[in-house]
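Hi R.,

Here's the chain you asked about this morning:
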Amino acid sequence: MSNNPYYKQHWIDIEPERHEAYDQILAFHPAMEPLIRPLELAPGLHVLDVGSGPGHTAMELARRVAPSGRVTGVDINADFVERSNRRAQEAGLPAEFVRDGFPPLDFPDRSFDRVFCKNVLEYVDSAADTVAEMARVAATGGIVVATDSDWDMLALDTGAAGAELNDRVLGAAKSIALREPKIGRRLYGLFREAGLADVKVEVMAGADTLGRSTPMLRASMARYARDSGRVTEPEVDEWLANISRAMERGTFLLVLPQFIVRGVKR
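And here is the predicted structure, written out as tokens:
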């Protein structure tokens, strides 16, 4: 039995069906361009992806720094690392992945031209320590970028009748799955405290009306809510049915703001 808190352990132990869902949820697509644009990528750069997950975004970064650059991805999940290395080799991309339960990051000072972290700091034991480590391993003049959600700003509408159930199910899920649910709004301060300069903040808050976020709700949030014990199985089933009905009616709406923060190592 692990002594890790749920917010960490559920990323260490991932069953096959969740891997399949994460390949869909965490795939790179053009709408994510604003998240990586602040990295100012170019061929020849060495990039660190902190919490690289299934590796899809890291491999997109590798395409942009190839052929002379390289991407290193670190993740706490052994299967993510193995799958990512295999995919990178099959695609012929300059990317490698290692297992690392950061913080700390197991790299020397000033090792990377760019450091990137996407939707990870909400789960780590210490967001402040992780950002400090990201700054430490960035080269002088290097760019550090983190993007993360602010879950207390999440807006989900499945119809007036389901509003109270939405709040209870999502609240139950957040209670165990997230270490820092308000991490989005904290990133600016953490970057400044880590000594990064020229810190800039953008917020991307596109509205999902097509259901792109429903795999995340079904594979992750429903599971977390059940595991929390704060809502019953029938309540979670009703919540999922409300989502399906809203999709059928064409009235589904979800907004989860993403804070994109960029700083420079001096």
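One quick note: The first strand starts at residue 46 and ends at 50.

Cheers,
M.
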